[in-house]
Amino acid sequence: MPRPGVRSGWTGTRAGRSAGRGGARRVWCAALLCAGLTALSACSDEGEPAGAAESAASTGTPSAPQPTPTPSSSPPSASPSASVSLSPRAAVTGWFTSGGEDQLVDVMGVAADVQARHERDALIIDFTGLFDTVHAAQKYAPIPDRATQTAWKTALQHLSSGAGDVYNASALGRGTEDDPKSREQIDHGWKEFGEGVKGLKALQTRLHRQFGLDLRTDPWADPT
């Protein structure tokens, strides 16, 4: 029969050991629990983990589009020179006062002189002054009105062509007035020249009626 003291002592020893191992497990589990809580607290303090941020960046999620600026509703103001155009009357007046009147007076003056001498049956063989004056007018700036410029250009052509026929059929142009062909050419030339004179007079009337422009002198007045 065993001794009560010895069994009791062994039993107490195993119980103590079991109690010691149970305490150690509890301490270890508590340590793990504390470590886990610390890690969770650190993650919540630091925000989104770096891995998640990098993953979101790598997906290339587009940012919200920025509003497109709306252009101004009012167009830029045009310069005064681009928006203002001269009226036909103002344009012709500008041509007339900036040298055009001089061209008219010169051509009409020389044409009136040649026409008057022809009507007096004077011998005219030199048209140099007429040719030079008409040529200068033809090279001058055109009248800024289509109908008026057409009348001016046509009158100048009649004067030049008519005087040219007369000159070529004359003795100076190596023609012979006694020759029927030369006589016919001379007559045709004077008729052509007369059409030019009529055109100049019609042009002078048009400038007065349409644009209120008058020459400073009357080229057709009788000097006597």
Describe the structure in your own words:
By secondary structure, the chain is mainly α. 70% of the residues lie in helices and 0% in strands. The chain has seven helices and no strands. The protein has helices at residues 4-46, 50-58, 80-83, 88-119, 128-139, 146-169, 180-211. Helix 4 packs antiparallel against helix 7 and helix 5 (128-139) runs antiparallel to helix 6 (146-169). The termini are far apart.
Unreliable sequence segments? 1-62, 71-83
Overall helicity = 55-70%
Q: Mind summarizing the main beta sheet? A: none
- Beta-strand percent range: under 5%
Overall mean pLDDT: 74
**Cα-to-Cα separation, first versus last residue:** 186 Å
Our Rg estimate from Cα atoms comes to 58 Å
The coarse silhouette is elongated
What is the string of helix and strand elements?
Answer: HHHHHHH
Number of strands: 0
Please report the number of helical segments: 7
Structural class by SSE content: mainly alpha
Descriptive key words:
224 residues, 7 helices, elongated, disordered N terminus
Give a brief outline of the structure:
This protein is mainly α.
List the helices and strands and how they pair.
Elements: H1 4-46, H2 50-58, H3 80-83, H4 88-119, H5 128-139, H6 146-169, H7 180-211
Helix pairs in contact: 4-5, 4-7, 5-6, 6-7
